[in-house]
Amino acid sequence: MEVIDTLEVKHAQKFYGQFQAVKDINLTIKKGEIYALLGHNGAGKSTLIKMILGLVKPSVGMIGIEGLNYDVKNKEIKKRVGYLPERMNFYDNLTAWETLSFYAKLKGITKKRCEEVLEQVGLSEARHRRVGTFSKGMQQRLGLAQAIIHRPDLLVLDEPTTGLDPIGILELKEMIRNWNKEGTTILFSSHNLNDVEELAQQIGIMNRGEIIAQGTLKELQNKLGMPTKIEIDLSVIPDNLEKILVEKQIETFQVEGRTISIDCPKDKKTQVIAAVMDGVLKVLDLRLKEPGLNSIYQRIMEELAV
What we know:
This protein is α/β, with parallel strands linked by helices. The protein is built from 11 helices and 14 strands. It has 2 domains: 7-221, 3-Layer(aba) Sandwich (Rossmann fold), CATH 3.40.50; 227-290, Alpha-Beta Plaits. Strand 9 (202-207) and strand 10 (210-215) form a beta hairpin. Helix 3 (96-107) crosses helix 4 (111-120) and helix 4 (111-120) packs across helix 5 (136-148). The longest helix is centred in the middle third of the chain and has 16 residues, at 166-181.
């Protein structure tokens, strides 16, 4: 049986007059994936998301969700998508329960489901409080509740951690993982690279309307050929340390206190580790640090600026 991708974007472009906000985007998100979209302000993320949601029609190209095309099945597609915008506006004089009941009625959902999602987002005890008294973080939670109330196939989150305190961010990450385990495909945009690195299975980086790099974290590391950092703690720093390291064919290193930091190609890690562990140096501890998303993002942006 053929597995249908949750989202398929083919050669999508968007023009506003002479300005091209999105340039020939091709993007596939498989069922059950968590995909993160990165890029600075003005990179085209919001326009792409609006096209995926059916709020903006592509000037060129096609967008399909669960095998359905917006041109033919617009209403059917929107039943399958949940969305949390960066800024969610509610009626201040309604309670959380009244607000969610309103969305449930629009989507033909029972009130039992309202109870379930309020529990999931941690608002059960505040269900009868007016939304106007809510903190920004609580309003964000209510926004999440309305986004998942109909159990969407695709959940789109635009800067979902905005306004959340550290505990709220941890709880949100756990919610995202749980929804994903239940089968929901998730697309989210974020400026927080640590959140992306922790949650995303696939990452797309946008710049000037184009996806300039995408893949898993490991794939991005490999494409850029970024070195692995090996940190070695020594019990004693020998006077001839530099000579010892050069003899071991280790030339790119820094010494700070009793710690040696070595940058080496990924395919040379085993060779370097074996060289420093041969008994000549008195090693207390050894740590490997693969290049993180922050380093990858900075490298990509630096290469674009050249």
